[in-house]
Amino acid sequence: MSYLEKNIDYLISSGDLNNSHKELVNNSLNLISISELTGYSIDDLVHKNLAVSLEKRDIQLIILDIDGVLTDGGMYFSENGDQMKKYNTKDGMAIINLVRKGMQFGIISSGFKDKMVRARAEMLGIQRIYVGRDKKMGILKSWLEEMNISIQQVAYVGDDINDLEIMEACGLSACPKDAVKAIREISDIILPKKGGDACVREFLDGYIRYEDGSHLEL
Length: 218
Fold this sequence. Notes:
The chain is α/β, with parallel strands linked by helices. It is built from 10 helices and 10 strands. It folds into 2 domains: 3-47, no CATH class; 61-217, 3-Layer(aba) Sandwich (Rossmann fold). The protein has helices at 3-13, 28-38, 42-47, 66-70, 89-100, 114-124, 136-147, 164-169, 181-186, 199-207; strands at residues 61-64, 76-77, 83-84, 104-109, 128-131, 154-157, 172-175, 189-190, 209-211, 215-217. It has a 6-stranded parallel beta sheet, sandwiched between helices. Strands 2-3 form a two-stranded antiparallel sheet. Strands 9-10 form a two-stranded antiparallel ribbon. Helix 5 runs parallel beside helix 10 (199-207). It starts with a helix and ends with a strand.
């Protein structure tokens, strides 16, 4: 079975397509329509296994970006210039569930509003938080030293080029389907949902199984 056939089956099972689309894949014009409908490039549909089959990995830390992952990347401003962000509660529920079981989460954001991000992170039980302009890899390395783990024990969900360095090096990388092309090209998993649309919930529920508070199996 080709990647394209496997990917069509995967997109049907995930609800992005229905069975009628299975008959359309041999026509290049229909393939363009499927690409537009799902948000995946034709190259990804034909050459990349979207439903990545992963061996067991000893993931000890899950790092999330904020803008474009936990949010849709949009920014809301009041008439007084106050910035607001909209988060998906489904993502929050999945994070809280794993935090309660002992999984370690971190947030590394290139934004400016430290207090706003910290308020949301603390609500979810996330204790490792960085908001600022320092390189993300440098922040992550300091956390790895504190935890005495390797970067291969990190799962990372990002969407833009400032996530690229970590995503190429970490043990498991994922991105929402509307991530920039450079990120989609190197991600282990391209999630069928967009940023802010419960893509983190999809990643945690669909790929992560927490085993007795010791490690993650995928």
